[in-house]
User: What shape does this take?
Amino acid sequence: MLASIRDYAGPRLVPALIIVTLGSIVEGAGLILLLPIADLAFSGASSNSPVAGIAEQLFASLGLGNTLQQLAFLCIAFLFIILLRAVILLRRDALLSELSQGYVDHFRKEIFAALANAEWTAIKRVQRAHLLDNMTTNIARMSLAVRFISQAGIMLVMVVIYLASGFIVHWGIGLLLAIISGIAAIAGLRWSRRSRRLGEAMTKSNRFIMDEMTRFLDGLKTAKAYQAGDLFARRFNMRIDAARAVSVQFVRQQGRMRRIIEMIGACTAVILLLSGYGLLSLSGAELLVMGAIVIRLMPGLLTLFSGMQSISYALPAFTAAQSIRKKLEDAKEDIAIQDAGGTNGLNHNGAIKLTNIRVSAMSDSADTQLLYVEGITLPAHGLIHVEGPSGAGKSTFAELIAGLQLASAGTITIGDVELSKANRVAWQSQIAFVPQEPFLFAASVRENLCWPNAEVTEREIWVALEAAAAGDLVKGLSDGLDHALQDGGNRLSGGERQRLCLARALLRPSSILIVDEATSAVDSAVEGIIVKNLAKIAQRKPVILISHSAQPAKFSNYSLSITQDGHVIVQE
Assistant: This one.
């Protein structure tokens, strides 16, 4: 995680480290300055410490002969250090906040970019609940970890400065403080390993919670129909209780650590007081500064080690998010654009040839065949009906023609252009695709129809709506094309959402239209109208219509059937 932060921060990391160090040095200087101030205030004479000797030389060079003048000078210097410290800390906090929040936002953007650019086959292998968990819960825990890293980094430098201040006051004090800090550090490292294990348990618990949430939302209608919502609630409560148990255990561990460090601090203060007075014969001023160092050091150690626990606790979240990001980045699509000749070839609306096509997937270390096409030629225009039992591979066939995934073996060509990684972008630019699941977002009907970048006239929009049997639907909305669809169009029926998605596909300039079960939720009369309209469109280009319904067969020019074992055959 530190390497990832370093790569993000780049050159900005150096000024951040410098300003953190400067803030700590100024803090230490303020503590050391207390020594001559206390000497003058309590005894009117300097102790035998090196700091007192330096102060005497400075007073002599400035001509400060009496105690009041010397004390006034030191107080002004102390106030200046406090002011300088405030300015440095303000800049430090702003800079570290910018870096830490910027890193988290950068990481979140990288996951979204990796998801957007990954191949469809890789995206299908990622569970939606796990993806959401990483982009929400794990990113939030990462944000806390980055904040604690900043705090721990500051405290680490501060602790070093405090220890150095102790050595300046007296070598014995510095040595004793270093020994005690080392003992506390060993204990903190052991606690960090426990925190890491608790963090791993929390990461699993959060993933289970997200699993239950998505399962509940996806199955809510069925659960309500069967009056089984309480079953979901019980499972969800069980996951919540497990996550709370881990969280409470971590808080309890943090509490134990805090109490132990507080006891160490109290014992340290007593030992230093007795040894400083009895063994080292420190002056009152030196004892006072020693006490100030201990008062500052112990909270610093507490913050440092608490931060270590919190970082260890959050590291599994970073590991999980980093893992899914890497998987998606490794599956990044090759978006190389083919040459102009190849792109023009796609515009010719040539026949679609599939030769020795094989689509397979790895399952339990075995190569499982999903689809096989020995050799078929789809016409350059016409309604092509594809049928087959559920799970036979109809959607895989649609994704294959759409360029969403490439065949494991064999070739697909349109005219003289063969589909490949190098020309996938150009290929997909000629495809209009309507998937099984209708996708709308919270925006107006017009914005949904023109998404992602269709530049069409209002007349063209209405032509597409009529072809999708959705004209009356939009006219019946209160604001027509400007009607806002809430919650992704969830207030519309499934068939209404399908028809709007079909109209959107019809507005896209394309050489091939693929409709994958996109009329399954409409009634037979409306489906008949849609199929007739698609048959008219098919006079200009191939329209591949995947459907269980018998309606498309009446208007199709070409029919394919996919068997249960994934073989694509031509129907006579």
Observations:
- Confidence is low (pLDDT under 50) at residues 336-345.
- The domain at 2-10+98-330 is CATH 1.20.1560.10 (ABC transporter transmembrane region fold).
- The chain has 19 helices and ten strands.
